[in-house]
Amino acid sequence: MISLLRRLRRAFAPEPVHLDDAEWSRVVARVPWAAALDPARRERLRALVGRFLRDKAIVPAGDFAIDAHQAHVLAALCCLPVLEFGYGGLAGWSELILYPDTFRAHRSHFDEHTGVLTEGEEELAGEAWDRGPVILSWGDIEADLAEPDAGFNVAAHEIAHKLDVLDGVMDGTPPLPRDWQRKWARDFQAAYDALCEDLDHEREPAIDAYAASAPEEFFAVCTEYHFSAPQVLADAMPAVAAHLERFYGPSPFRSRAA
Ligand SMILES: [Zn+2]
User: Residues of the signal sequence (predicted)?
Assistant: First the structure.
């Protein structure tokens, strides 16, 4: 009976999309974080990517068009943050809307000579609320891929928001076992307060000042550092870095020098 059910389920459930070895190698070569994973985690990423491509619609905005390889790269970027959490971390949404150009303008600049902090426009991509789509721009993705250790990873940022909201509230805390959640909230709050304090006193922030705009942005920006510049995060906020290492697994860039 069980095997009959299983056979029926298999007959009706579409299989994950299979990327052949040559295409998977191209994806890995294009995504530095995937290339830096150990072989076991890279294989897990490949399996997640197949399910992502089966379940999520990647919708280019307007007359923008992307090819299959670009879709595979996007899938790999979106699946990286759920390597430890599992595929359930991508639940609750079904569309990735892709704009052609860079619209992420919140990369702030702190001038240490004048003490002036320049902030860009509000983050237009930060609408990853509830059941809405994930919105990314290919321009941002390309910028991240070109400079993977610069502290930015916009795809990880948006997926962090989606993980955050899985428990129904976007507050900088994803669903966690109760004990861990308490420690997470305490350590994140302390680091967030310290960052706000630095900015209030016109001290150069250790991470992108955009993180100070709200607790959920703090979590999302720290997520970017976890993947892109883990040493910066570990030096500045060791407790936060340790939580993220447990939540996301070791950063693919962990062994790199800062
Ligand atoms: Zn955000």
Answer: none
In the chain, which ranges are continuous DSSP H helix? 2-12, 21-30, 32-35, 39-55, 68-79, 138-146, 154-164, 178-200, 215-228, 230-236, 238-248
Using only the alpha carbons of the chain, give its radius of gyration: 19
Q: How many angstroms does the Cα of residue 94 sit away from the middle of ligand 1?
A: 19
Domain-wise residue ranges, the chain: 17-248
Q: How far is CA 187 from CA 55, 57, 179, in A?
A: 35, 36, 13
Please state whether beta strands 116-118 and 109-111 pair in parallel, antiparallel, or not at all (unpaired): antiparallel
Long-range own/partner contacts, residues 173-176 (CB < 8 A, 24 or more apart) = 173/219, 174/85, 174/219, 174/247, 176/247
Separation of CA 59 and ligand 1 centre (Å): 20
Tens digit of each residue's pLDDT (9 = 90 or more) over 51-72: 999 999 999 988 999 999 999 9
156 CA from centroid of ligand 1 (Å): 10
Write out pLDDT tens, residues 18-33: 999 999 999 999 999 9
Asked whether 103 and 64 are in contact (CB, 8 A), the reply is no
Distance 107 CA to ligand 1 centre (A): 12
Nearest to 247 by CA among 58, 45, 59, 89: 89
Q: Provide the percentage of residues in the chain whose pLDDT is more than 90.
A: 77
Contact (Cβ atoms closer than 8 angstroms) between residue 228 and residue 151: yes
Other C-beta atoms closer than 10 Å to the C-beta of 150 total 14
Q: What are phi and psi of 114, to 5 degrees?
A: -95, -15
- The CA-based diameter of the chain, rounded to the nearest angstrom, is 74
